[in-house]
Amino acid sequence: MFNYDLSIGTNSIKKKIDRSAVRAVILRGTKILVLKSDNEEVKLPGGGVEVNETAYDALRREIKEETGYNISKYKVFGVITVTAPSQDNKSVLFSMKSDYFLVEVENKKGQTSLQGYEIDLNFKAEFIEINDAIKINEKAIKNNNLNEIAHRELIALYEVKKLVFDAS
User: Where is each Nudix hydrolase domain found (predicted)?
Assistant: First the structure.
């Protein structure tokens, strides 16, 4: 299991908001299910854990909403915590602890139910080669080094690559 803490642009900010999230690593051979967006980055399916919601309930809900798949199995894979200035208020730090899970899904895919910014950014779930996902996020970071989503997911993708290719 991996555990990373990533801080981006946090120098002198004192006030902090903490949030928990879940992320799914869904594999088919050397391909991984990602959400492509108009931001020219990829992210793994997942999102915030709501009040009174367990991590598993959030994982199940987010995967269904963003990809249309239902979970058949899951296990803990790792944790990445990212702390950066809030996008809404640069004088506040936003810390997101993301729990990553290795997830197996049922073959049948249902409808997605994207919301808000997911619709605005044109999220599309797609299986792509792990190395291609890595290249997309490396390019996103090169174009915008403060892109915390691309940084976070790149770390996870490197861990997935180790898992898949070291196991071969």
Answer: 17-150
Q: What is the pLDDT of residue 117?
A: 83
Q: What's the rounded Cα separation, in Å, for the pair 71 and 108?
A: 11
Can you tell me the distance from the alpha carbon of 117 to that of 100, in angstroms, rounded to the nearest whole number? Answer: 22
Q: Phi and psi for 30 in degrees, rounded to 5?
A: -100, 15
What pLDDT shows up at residue 105? 96
Two structure tokens written together for 3: 């555990």
Q: Looking at residue 42, which CATH number applies to its domain?
A: 3.90.79.10
Distance CA 67, CA 168 (A): 27
Compute the radius of gyration of the chain from its Cα atoms: 15
Residue 74 above 70 pLDDT?
Answer: yes
Where are the extended beta strands (E) located within the chain? 2-7, 15-28, 31-36, 42-43, 46-48, 71-85, 92-105, 124-129
pLDDT at 141 over 80: yes
- Tell me which residue range forms the domain holding 30: 2-166
Query: What is the model's pTM?
Result: 0.91
Confidence grade of residue 137 (pLDDT, cut at 50, 70, 90): very high
Phi–psi pair at 8, nearest 5 degrees: -125, 115
Confirm if 68 and 111 have CB atoms less than 8 A apart. Answer: yes
